[in-house]
Amino acid sequence: MTSTCTSFEQDRGEQVGQSIGDNPSSGVPEERVVISAASGVYDVLVNPYSATDSAYDGRAALHSFKKTGKPGGPGGEVPDEPLFDIGCERGLAGPFPCQNVDLAAYLPLSAIGDAGAGNDSWGWTDPQTGREYALMGTTSGTAFVDVTEPTKPAYLGMLPSHQPVETLFASWRDVKVYRDHAYVVSEEPLYGMQVFDLTRLRGVSQPRTWTEDAHYPLFGGAHNVAINEDTGFAYAVGTAICEGGPHMVDIRDPRNPAFTGCVDEDGYTHDTQAVVYDGSDTRFSGREILFNSNEDTLTIVDVTDKANPVQLSRTTYGAASYTHQGSLTEDGRYFLLNDELDEQTFGFNTSTYMSTSPA
């Protein structure tokens, strides 16, 4: 399977902050932060962390953001109180810009566990009751919100982080669902993968602190996890093992995840999509294929045989700066890919790259 890339452009938004470094600092008593071309007032976060009885040696990340208070749109600052059922009038739904879309509800972080920040969300529909739930990754853990009535969301509590000490890596927490179980990963270095039986949310109306049903410890931190629901395999990416490539886990028995292999030929994977291929390249019909966003390439791998993954192609592009994520079109003909840093690096508008497979 080979591929080629082209691009099209969209309007670019302004970036309000910048990351200014990631510096190993074990045993170092101080950090010096330099912000090039600085203007205005900045908050700088330095958050060292160390773990005993492990190979992790501590690290401090330095982040800089212009100190402007909570950002807001044309309607003012984002509120700290929930908002419910606000119509779109004159281009605003409360403080949020809108166009022909009403605001069903807004829950600030203070209303869903009071975490410091949020990262990603997923969803689950209970097959028995039809109720819908949002699963929100935060710096404190995974928040559960019943969103069955969109204008009346109900916070049902938090599954705390498996690693009890919140570290600088807590900002990245991702969750996916398979067979009514949530699988949660984080970049926290001792985290592994939590497994939570979502059917326990049935009938709950008040927030509570939840406990995990199982834990997979064979990798520490992971940037993200993808699940192929057709095969029952999870792929943790950005771990400290498998050279950062996909760490493959059999989750067909949801509470007993089992390691099945590594995809490590092309190094670190930031995100992946796993599919049973049914696109236009019939040589690979019925094969389980990973489409890996690998920082500066789209790398495609056949993982049908977990013990012997086969790299099919490795495609880069002229403006590669940080290949971040992508997704196949429904017909399997195109893979749409985005680069996280090409705007800053090359100064052009946001671009989506289209990778095509042979007809």
Automatic annotation (TrEMBL):
<dbReference type="InterPro" id="IPR027589">
    <property type="entry name" value="Choice_anch_B"/>
</dbReference>
<protein>
    <recommendedName>
        <fullName>Choice-of-anchor B domain-containing protein</fullName>
    </recommendedName>
</protein>
<feature type="region of interest" description="Disordered">
    <location>
        <begin position="1"/>
        <end position="30"/>
    </location>
</feature>
<dbReference type="GO" id="GO:0005576">
    <property type="term" value="C:extracellular region"/>
</dbReference>
<feature type="compositionally biased region" description="Polar residues">
    <location>
        <begin position="16"/>
        <end position="26"/>
    </location>
</feature>
<dbReference type="InterPro" id="IPR011048">
    <property type="entry name" value="Haem_d1_sf"/>
</dbReference>
